[in-house]
Specification:
Elements: H1 7-11, E1 24-27, H2 31-41, E2 47-50, E3 67-71, H3 72-80, H4 84-88, E4 92-94, E5 96-101, E6 112-115, E7 126-130, H5 131-145, E8 148-150, E9 155-160, E10 165-169, E11 174-177, E12 179-182, H6 189-193, E13 198-214, E14 221-227, E15 230-237, E16 241-249, H7 250-258, H8 261-272, E17 279-281, E18 286-295, E19 299-300, E20 303-305, E21 311-312, H9 320-340, H10 348-376, H11 381-395, H12 398-409
Parallel strand pairs: 1-2, 1-12, 2-8, 5-14, 12-20
Antiparallel strand pairs: 3-7, 4-7, 5-6, 9-10, 10-11, 13-16, 13-17, 13-18, 14-15, 15-16, 18-21, 19-20
This protein binds flavin-adenine dinucleotide.
Flavin-adenine dinucleotide (FAD) is lined by residues 27-33, 50-53, 68-69, 154-155, 183-185, 189, 207, 209, 245, 288, 307-309, 315, 318-322, 324.
Length: 424
């Protein structure tokens, strides 16, 4: 019997006959873009990063007040990628998390959810890492790796061909690869050009972000207070300092942000409480508008998205970067496995595997963070009753507490190898 095969079937197994400049081009050299490049580089996949800005490293390593809660699984990946030893010197382990409902100036509601080492026996549930340290360490390892980083450059056009994607840059050059990854943040041009549509909305809330120095030690305990206008997270940093993510209605947030330092602290104090003694500012103050924005798919032909380019979520659960790191770990794994099978990295079956792996999880994260914000950021009596009931129920049920912590630590479900602390 005569069987007809498509001429490209065999070509899919022979990527190098096309003599491409790189295996993967990553548009966006933020935290997820660089991490992906480093993960791929370790497996011999040749990656180039394009960023419209210069790499953001704090001048003279000055702390600008921004920090991230890094989940236990993300920490494992940073360790495998050779970043953790350096990061650990300035990372603060989180050993306990206390969540409660409250009003400014009042004692928290008696319904408290408290997670501690009994609920997560693997070690700290996560770590607080300052933005300046994460960027400095990523840039350092990136430089040593000799991964190509083209800064002050944007993608002018991306043309998908049967066997490769050609990317025209503002510098005038055109480079080719098997896959183009959009790691270019919440306004992702890569997604737009690939026709990946998005849905979402503005929350009408903004987060005030800064670091606070305090008199008493925090003992590695993170606090989350749910106030009617939005949550206030107090997250332990090294020394007697904590990072805050203080969410208010956007208009109020801008008014508070415009105040001088003393007045800003006067508004914060009744919300922050007195349990850490006197407080003062330990860096610059920032304000971030909050919105939900998610693409309907994370892939199209020879294109994949990671991080905020695919899903920007409310910071209520501190999961934005962590879910971006999960994308990185999953995409690196499917690309690495395709390379081991000798396949073209950009074929549909490989990218669809990535979509199946991460699409549902990210949709659930968007739904959950949106639901939490709706339930917790309001003063409705019924919602208040419901959330107190929920906090009380989870707080008093060890099995539920363990399930919550494992989810937040990123150790549940089909966890990619890097997030399990294994090599690709
Ligand atoms: C108030 C607040 C607190 C948060 N706290 C936490 C937390 O505790 N834990 C956590 O996990 N997450 C947190 N997040 C979320 C986290 O900050 C983001 O999810 C994360 O920074 C996204 O990283 P990214 O690399 O995907 O995108 P980005 O950081 O947006 O990087 C995008 C990169 O792409 C480049 N770029 C953009 N457009 C182009 C273009 N056209 N061409 C080339 N390059 C381009 C940019 O210059 C940039 O370098 C928080 C967010 C907010 C707002």
């Amino acid at each position: 019997m005569l069987t007809m095969s498509h001429p490209l079937d065999n070509i899919a197994l022979l990527p190098h006959v096309f003599n491409m400049d790189y295996d993967v081009i990553i548009a966006g050299g933020g935290l997820t873009g660089i991490t992906l490049a480093l993960a791929l580089h370790r497996t011999g996949i040749r990656a180039a990063i394009i960023d419209k800005n210069t790499p953001l490293v704090a001048p003279n390593n000055i702390f600008d007040g921004r920090s991230y809660a890094i989940a236990a699984a993300s920490q494992k990946m940073l360790n495998v990628l050779g970043l953790w030893d350096d990061l650990a010197k300035n990372a603060q382990p989180m050993v306990e998390i206390k969540v409660s409902d409250g009003y400014a100036g009042e004692v928290p509601s008696p319904f408290v959810m408290q997670f501690d080492q009994q609920d997560f026996t693997e070690g700290p549930m996560g770590y607080m890492v300052e933005d300046r340290n994460l960027r400095r360490v990523l840039q350092g390892v990136l430089k040593d790796s000799k991964v190509t980083f083209k800064s002050n450059t944007e993608v002018l056009s991306q043309t998908v061909k049967p066997t490769q994607v050609a990317v025209e840059l503002t510098s005038g050059a055109t480079i080719t690869a098997a896959v183009l990854v959009g790691a270019d943040g919440r306004t992702s041009n890569t997604a737009k050009t690939a026709g990946l549509t998005r849905s979402g909305w503005d929350y009408g809330q903004s987060s005030l972000v800064c670091a606070i120095a305090h008199e008493k030690p925090h003992n590695g305990i993170a606090h989350q207070y749910f106030m009617p206008s939005g949550p206030l997270a107090i997250l332990p940093l090294t020394g007697n300092r904590s990072g805050i993510v203080w969410t208010e209605k956007t208009e109020t947030a801008h008014q508070i942000h415009a105040l001088d330092k003393a007045d800003y602290l006067d508004i914060l104090r009744p919300r922050f409480g007195t349990f850490l003694g006197n407080i003062s500012l330990a860096g610059e103050r920032y304000i971030y508008p909050l919105s939900l924005s998610t693409t309907h798919s994370m892939i199209s032909q020879r294109v994949a998205l990671v991080g905020d380019a695919a899903h920007e979520v409310h910071p209520i659960a501190g999961q934005g970067l962590n879910s971006g790191f999960k994308d990185v770990a999953a995409l690196a794994q499917v690309l690495c496995d395709a390379k081991r099978r000798g396949q073209d990295l950009g074929i549909d079956t490989t990218l669809k595997e990535y979509q199946r792996w991460r699409g549902f999880d990210n949709a659930m994260l968007c739904t959950a963070t949106n639901g939490f914000n709706l339930l917790f950021s309001n003063d409705n009596l019924l919602a208040r009753g419901l959330r107190d009931l929920g906090l009380g129920l989870v707080g008093s049920t060890p099995m539920l507490r363990r399930a919550f912590v494992a989810k937040a630590a990123g150790t549940t479900g089909d966890v990619p190898r890097l997030l399990q602390g294994e090599q690709l």
